[in-house]
Amino acid sequence: MSEPAGRAPQPVDAKVLIGGEWYQKDDRLESLNPATGEVIGYAPLCNREDVELAVRAAREAQPSWAALPLDRRIGHLETLRGLVAQEGDALASLITQESGKPLQEAHFLEVLGTLDFITGLCKGAPAYLADRRVRAGNPLLWGKRHWVRRVPLGVLGVISPWNLPLAIPMGQILPALLAGNTVVFKPSEFAPLVGTKLAGLFHRAGFPPGVLNLVTGGPETGVHLVEGGLDGLLFTGSTGAGLQIQARLAPRLIPTELALGGKDAFLVLPDAPFARTVSGAAWAACFGTGQACTSAERFFVPTGMKDRFAAAVAAKVGSLRVGNGMEEGVEVGPLISPQQLERVEAHVQEAVSRGARLLCGGQRLPGPGFFFQPTVLLDVPLDCALMREETIGPVVPIAGYTDLDEAVRWINDSRYGLSASIWTADVERGLALGRRLAVGTVWINDVSYTHARAQLPWGGMKQSGSGRTHWLGSLHELTSIQLLGADRGQREGELWWFPYSSDGLDLARRIRFLLTEGLAGRLTNLIPFLKDLVKVRGTR
Ligand code: NAD
């Protein structure tokens, strides 16, 4: 059962999981409930030695984990799935208490998302990870056999943000493990308790010691992990941190998946289904208190309909229920931190000072907790921070456009390229327009629903990241390729081996003619080729 609304849970003293053992530390970080400002727990602040210990444990566990048949690894994931289902209420309520999102979102986006993801992953993984027999397709290689294998990378680091503290790490840890890697996981310093609960589920599900290790801490712990001798890294977080990590890893050339920031556009066409588009706008900007990476953060609406549209969105957004996400019916929770509150406030104030019209909200709410009113602004200048930088808050900044090509240029004129949505009754037109947007995902008449669907890729272009995560295709990014080639070894040598001779040279030329000439040329060369072949073969 979930905690009753309003009652603070007892602060917990979390531990880290390294090599199958739980460890506590005196050096700890605090975890706050952003809806109340209260401390809900403590977690170890891991230093370089802790991280090294975790990487070592993961390295020791990796060969035997990779040697398990795939169906045994899938079996572990299925056991974990059972525990996530069983613990769904406890998980959702902890997520709400630590990240602030309304309980319903914790269920839909995190618990159900994770369950759905595990199901799709387990079903699809064998096809992605199986050895594949391939034909070389060249007659000179007849008699040889070839297989393409997927080989685990080794020890991977997974560093996560707080905004989807269950679904994001699960979407990366699980494919990494299924592919035969072992993992050291560092959750966000704003969600260490959810990270600890997640690690506890792996422990209870009977994953062998060292397969999943947990270290908690802030960015410094993240740096120790990045520098900890990993074989690959999956990082989700801000673009600034992603760029630093990439620079840090440059000398090591290890595979990285970077899922970074976004400034998602919401493009309304004149024929957009009005009621759905208005509801979609309110949700796209305010679910997760506007703190999802794919929250819509820039709205482009035809000039002729922008006033009507903005008024309808303001009516909807202005009536959203703001409060502690544990309370029934609350739709918008707190921001994650006082710093985030300041950032959102600064973006809104700058836009207003530059002439944007405030239609609703615009203020922080009195504490406790870090609440900001859901806000709608119209005629926001395009060069405001609110239209260019990640705001990460429940804000709908609207600009009018007269020329669709111009709106497309505005959307593409961004360092980010995570995702965008297009709202229109003409789906084919929307799809054609989507092809012109430089973003990793385009949704027509919906937003964000593709996260954690194993069949669908997730990721961005430009400074929104590299690689695709939370999907089956990431099994290929999380493995290296090994080609196995075999000859029966019955001949003394191959045509292209020593000794070299004029006959060998002639043979190479004849083969070229046979492969590239027209029919007449090929016929002319066939008999000389066979003669050369017999001569050269005789020397092997
Ligand atoms: P953040 O970059 O501050 O922190 C993310 C994680 O990285 C945390 O665990 C943090 O401790 C660690 N970290 C920070 N700096 C680091 C460094 N230099 N080296 C190693 N580790 C470091 O991000 P956040 O505030 O937790 O999350 C919000 C950001 O994440 C937003 O920009 C959002 O758009 C982005 N995000 C992207 C996706 C996606 O799929 N593209 C998903 C969720 C969030």
Architecture blueprint of SSEs:
Elements: E1 12-13, E2 16-18, E3 21-23, E4 28-32, E5 39-44, H1 48-67, H2 70-86, H3 88-99, H4 103-129, E6 132-134, E7 145-152, E8 155-159, H5 167-178, E9 182-186, H6 192-204, E10 212-214, H7 219-226, E11 232-236, H8 239-249, E12 256-259, E13 264-268, H9 274-286, E14 296-302, H10 306-318, H11 338-353, E15 357-360, E16 375-378, H12 385-388, E17 395-401, H13 404-412, E18 416-417, E19 419-423, H14 427-434, E20 441-444, E21 461-462, E22 465-466, H15 474-477, E23 479-486, H16 502-516, H17 519-538
Parallel strand pairs: 1-5, 8-9, 8-11, 9-10, 11-12, 13-14, 13-19, 14-17, 16-17, 19-20
Antiparallel strand pairs: 2-3, 4-5, 6-7, 7-23, 12-22, 15-16, 18-21
Helix pairs in contact: 2-4, 3-4, 4-5, 9-10, 16-17
What does the model show?
This protein is an alpha/beta fold and about 550 residues long. About 40% of the residues lie in helices and about 20% in strands. Helix 5 (about 165-180) links the parallel strand 8 (about 155-160) and strand 9 (about 180-185). The termini are far apart. Bound molecules: nicotinamide-adenine-dinucleotide.
CATH topology of the largest domain: Aldehyde Dehydrogenase, Chain A, domain 1
The tally of domains stands at 3
CA gyration radius, whole angstroms = 28 Å
Cα distance spanning the termini: 77 Å
